[in-house]
TrEMBL record:
GO cellular component: nucleus
Major place of residence: nucleus
Name by which UniProt lists this protein: DONS protein
InterPro entries to which the protein is assigned, alphabetical: Donson (IPR024861)
């Protein structure tokens, strides 16, 4: 056995650390801190954290905490508490990026969410029976309620198995409007397990396969035996192509409502006919680059840039209105009209003709721009949207989506050739089973705490769901939580930002044909929600609140 003196080494180290600290002058230490040499090289920030640093930093942390005012929405650090990151107006346009938290940091973050004041801004929407469909993929959803979530804890083996069976058989679970004893309701617990299931390919448990955009740092240092083995890469890609084709065939047969293809540089959302207000199959790609769009054009794929076209139409309409206003001001306004039309005219006339140089006799003294530069100048507005939400590409129709399928299978930029993700095929995410797919479940856990409210504190219970929360899963979870929490809960949603552009409506306004998807594996109410034309544009839901069985939300 071990000696009793070494059972708790941190306590022993704490005593040794305190002795030199007593002889240190705080004022001298504070004066010397700004002139301390900074770490040399970029690798210093990535060094392993000292596990005993919290011991010698304890007095400073306590002193700093004593100087801070009471927690409030205005003074709360959004980077430390995601709760206020969602709700502060200052963080709406560009939320700070956070590294993927580990289990220990998740516990700290969740406890901060619970102990934060519950002052929630008013949602701009009016109360409705249903919230709009959100086609972005959520990485984290935090449900909060005054009613406990103990019914979602420690599912029995039979309840878990029943939930999996209900998912595979597409069983429609009908729950009452309100459940008096949620913990004793087996149907409720089985429906909760059913709502957490999704399908994934490839399945590599030691690698985080979502998100793939910007995931090199999280994948660094992981075992990747295929990185230097071309034969293994070909086997993985061949297996992936079979799964991808299987998903597309299910979608064309209306047996799969939608699925995602998550690559290292872009993501693709395939939707069956009848979803998102479209009468034909559609595919959305975001973000894209000029090179990818040119490659698609060369393959004969017809597509549109709806967000870019909408922006151009809006600017053109505004300019026409401003010109009409100026023409009413007299002759001076007419000269301004001519000046305003000159840039567009000069852009259209940049066709590479330089006959005017020969007329001046300086054709040999002036360096002429090459054809590529002229073309880039013409397409500067399209190039400027690369890697942005406005670069969303929309492909419509069975023939175009099938051509896109073959294009993606043979696309070289689909798989990284260097870095931690080299040779790894894209991630396939689907709500239904497909060939080569692996059943996965979202991670769910419950935490209880006390939150500050005007006049004191109150008990707050939370349910955190981690993982790629697909659109159907979000709606299924709300249908389970409504009767369990007696029609009152709040949800804070963290979206994968590049996928927010998928909320652009894929169908023209005049398209009114409706397609039925009876056997696609989704609940009828979920299917009805996803069939509506998206209304969120290039944004996503950030706050969803149910009160008296009606929804309000904020995007």
């Amino acid at each position: 056995g071990q000696s009793p003196a070494f059972k708790k080494p941190p306590a022993l180290l704490r005593l040794k650390r305190r002795r030199p600290g007593r002889r240190t002058d705080p004022a001298t230490a504070a004066a010397e801190a700004p002139v301390a040499p900074s770490p040399r090289g970029p690798s210093a920030a990535a060094r392993r954290r000292n596990p005993f640093s919290s011991l010698d930093n304890a007095p400073q942390r306590a002193a700093a905490a004593s100087q801070l005012p009471a927690a409030s929405p205005a003074s709360w650090d959004p980077s430390a508490a995601p709760f206020w990151q969602f709700l502060e107006p200052a963080c709406e346009e560009k939320p700070p990026r956070r590294a993927e938290p580990d289990e220990r940091s998740d516990n700290l973050t969740l406890s901060q969410d619970l102990h934060s004041p519950l002052a929630v801004p008013k949602a701009p929407s009016s109360p409705r029976e249903e919230f709009p469909a959100d086609w972005s993929i959520k990485t984290r959803v935090l449900f909060m309620s005054s009613q406990p979530f103990t019914w979602a804890e420690h599912l029995k083996a039979q309840e878990e198995a029943q939930g999996f069976a209900q998912h595979c058989r597409a069983v429609e679970t009908t729950l009452p409007r309100s459940v008096q004893e949620p913990r004793l309701c087996t149907e409720l617990r089985c429906a909760f397990q059913q709502s957490l299931v999704y399908w994934l390919h490839p399945s590599l448990p030691w690698l985080p396969l979502f998100p793939r955009l910007g995931a090199d740092r999280r994948m660094a240092g992981k075992a990747c035996p295929w990185a230097q083995d071309e034969a293994l890469q070909q086997v993985l890609m061949s297996d992936w192509s079979v799964s991808f084709t299987s998903l597309y065939n299910l979608l064309r047969a209306r047996l799969c409502p939608y699925f995602y293809v998550c690559a290292t540089q872009f993501s693709v959302l395939f939707r069956a006919a009848g979803l998102a207000g479209s009468a034909v199959p559609s595919a959305a790609i975001a973000p894209t680059t000029r090179g990818l769009r040119e490659a698609m054009r060369s393959e004969g794929i017809e597509f549109s840039l709806p967000l870019l076209e909408e922006s151009r139409t809006r600017k053109q309409k505004n300019s026409e209105e401003s010109l009409e206003t100026e023409t009413t001001d007299g002759l001076g306004g007419g000269s301004r009209v001519e000046d305003a039309g000159e840039p567009a005219h000069s852009d259209d006339d940049d066709d590479g003709s330089f006959s005017w140089l020969e007329e001046m006799g300086v054709q040999d003294k002036v360096k002429k721009p090459d054809t590529i530069s002229i073309q880039l100048r013409k397409e500067k507005h399209e190039v400027q949207v690369d890697h942005r939400p406005e670069s969303l590409v929309l492909v419509r129709g069975s023939s175009n989506t099938f051509t896109l399928l073959n294009f993606l299978i043979s696309c070289r930029s689909l798989v990284a050739v260097a870095g931690p993700q080299a040779g790894l095929p894209p991630t396939l995410l689907s709500p239904v089973a497909f060939r080569g797919g692996t059943m996965q479940t979202l991670k769910a856990r419950t935490v209880s705490g006390r939150a500050r409210v005007p006049g004191g504190f109150e008990d707050v219970f939370s349910l955190e769901v981690l993982g790629p929360v697909l659109p159907h899963a979000l709606h299924a979870l709300t249908m389970v939580l409504a009767p369990a929490q007696r029609g009152a809960f709040r949800a804070l949603l963290s979206a994968h930002e590049p996928s927010a552009a998928f909320n652009t409506c894929p169908a023209p306004p005049q398209e009114g044909e409706h397609q039925e998807l009876p056997a696609c594996g989704l609940h009828p109410k979920t299917l009805e929600q996803l069939s509506q034309c998206p209304t969120l544009g290039k944004s996503s839901l950030r706050l969803l609140e149910m009160k008296d069985y009606t929804y309000t939300w904020k995007a």
